[in-house]
Amino acid sequence: MTGLVWGLKSLGRHPLRTALSLAGIAVASAMLLDMVMLSGGIEKSFSELLLARGYQIRITPKGTLPFDTEGSIPRTSEVVRTIRAEPGVEAAGAVLGTAVYGRTRDSLVTLFGYGIQPEAQGIYQVTAGADLAPGDTLGILLSETAAGLLHTSIGDTVTLAGRLDPQIASASVDRRLVVRGLVRWIYDHRGQPSVGTVLPVMQRLGRDAAADPGSLLLVKAADDRAVDNLAERLRERFPALEVNSVAELVVQAKRRLVYFTQLAYVLGGMSLIVAVLLVATLLTITVNERLGEIATLRAIGVSRGTVVRQVLAEGVALTVLGSAGGILLGLATAEYLDAILTSFPGLPATFSFFVPRADTLSLAALVLLLTGSLAGIYPAWLASRAPIAATLRAEAT
Amino acid sequence: MTRSPMLVARDLRKDYPMNGEVVHALRGASLTVEPGEFVAIVGPSGSGKSTLLQIVGGIDPPSGGSVELLGTRLETLNDRALTHLRLTRLGFVFQRFHLLPVLTARENVELPMAEAGLRGARRRERARQLLEYVGLGHREGHRATQLSGGEMQRVAIARALANRPAILLADEPTGELDAATGREILELFRRLNRDGTTLLVVTHDERLAAQAGRVVHMLDGRIAAETTAP
Is residue B1 part of a domain? Predict the structure, then answer.
């Protein structure tokens, strides 16, 4: 035990040097941690976002992803009725996304309009006031940003305009609606001014209502294990539509983000190498400085094994201490970088690039621990092989 | 009943390369040490004193000849067995003390006992007793760097005695000390020998050699003469 104490106390022999090395290891560990969080974070965050309200299947116009294009699903109400009648379907609802305009005293404000079926919706959460009742053609839901732009609050009346004619800057359709509640639209980017009405109202405001268009259908399966099977049946039933389970969308997203993952692996690997080099360099220097001590220990009967364990313990201690700082630094950096990345236009505000996961964090910690041990192998070998007599002779002269 | 010798070194030779040439550090040195003896090895620098001590202490292999310590031929032992023998049967004291500066006096003394597997409380207690024995009970919590040269050497002696060695080997133990401090160490060695410790000491210090029961004179890698105290 005293031998181990010697190893650990040796780290305090040159406090500044040890502190600088610890800082280096902390930076490398922080980078590794961030890269680990980044590599799996996008996937996890994306999956959580899509499953936020428990709807496991998305149906969109053929060849598109939700809100990817202006394309729409025709006869949405009929499609939804058919889907709801399918065995194993717990709920299904349609969403229409379109541009609408809000009238203020002297101008029009551009808004994003959601047409929804309140009895089966998976895209918002009420934060204040009340939800729309099914068939409530007089009510409207606003995001905080939209409420701010329209200078309205719950109970006020707002006027929405649709199908603006750019030639005369005049809207073809106007609709007065009462604000029922404030909501957080799950897929909105930060600061997006969005409003929601029941589907028929938004269809009249934004599109050709007679076609009964929808941008997206959400389907909730009663049994999570039956999602793939249900998606397959819906695919067969609606060959003209794109049917994807959330798991499939995550795979597609992963394919699109493969460069992110590769970048994360490469940078993570590099930071790991930096950590190994730092620990190995510091230990090699300290072992070389202490060869006389080590030779003395060997002379008085301390085994090679003990010497090796001491040096390895120093490596592990350095890595553990450095990594502890690295975790704090890594989490702080991840938060900062996340704020920058998620501010990019078009990204949902609730999306996150850096997501801490217990399994990946444990893996990173294990890899770092192994790294510390591996980094100590060469200096430990050097220490255990120090020629006793020659080193003592050199020390005496 | 006759007692077996503690140490028998026969015809020891040691050659090693230096700057492209072979240095003959020992040219056939033989030595026997009986239990309880206090033997001093003296001679000019380069005469092979320290090399002889390192070879009989099992930390440097001879180029020729043999060493028998407590009936065991050292050349028959592998590194592990030799290390264990040094730990349990030999005590070493070096000219430059070689204490670990980051440890306290007591921790330095505990180190060989920890290596030998002696556990916490008993180990600490024995370390305290040894520090008391060398007159440093009051300094047990001080780091090696906070001790004077004489104190460091006394801690080193306590460390050498930690595992109750059969023989204590010392290489110029007063070489780094002033005259007064050297006298304290000398007195400590005398006391150790009186208490039954076998001593083999390499020294330039005539006063220290004068305390030995037998003085071995080395010259040019050989034992040139031996004198026994009257």
Answer: no
* Chain B residue numbers touching A292 (CB-CB < 8 A): 98
Residue A349 gets which letter from DSSP? Answer: T
Domain encompassing residue B193: 7-228
Residue B2 placed within a domain = no
Q: How far is Cα B182 from Cα B204, in angstroms, rounded to an integer?
A: 12
Each residue's pLDDT tens digit, B7-64: 999 999 999 888 888 889 999 999 999 999 999 999 998 899 999 999 999 999 999 9
Ordered by start, the domain boundaries in chain A are 3-48+256-396, 63-239
- ipTM reported for the complex, 2 dp: 0.91
DSSP A153-219: -TT-EEEEEEEEETTTTEEEEEEEEEEEEEEEETTPBTT--EEEEEHHHHHHHHS-GGG--BSEEEE
Average pLDDT over residues B127-156: 91
Q: Which residues contact B161 (CB under 8 A, 6 or more apart)?
A: B91, B130, B133, B168, B192, B197
* Within-domain flag for B196: yes
We report the CATH number of the domain holding residue B99 as: 3.40.50.300
Long-range CB pairs of A164-171, under 8 A, 24+ apart, other chains included: A164/A101, A164/A108, A171/A101, A171/A108
CA angle A394, B134, B138 (to 5 degrees): 105
Q: How confident is the model at residue B202 (pLDDT cuts 50, 70, 90)?
A: very high
Mean pLDDT over A229-256 rounds to 88
Q: How many domains does chain B have?
A: 1
User: What is each CA distance from A382 to A119, A253, A315, B93, in whole angstroms?
Assistant: 72, 49, 14, 25
Q: What pLDDT, on the 0 to 100 scale, is given for residue B110?
A: 94
| Residues within 8 A of B (CB atoms), A 253-272 only | none
- Residue contact B59–A293, C-beta within 8 A: no
Pairwise CB contact (< 8 Å): A2 & B83: no
Residues A300, B110: C-beta atoms closer than 8 Å:
no
Coil vs helix vs strand at A131: coil
Q: What is the pTM of this model?
A: 0.72
Q: Find the length of chain A.
A: 397
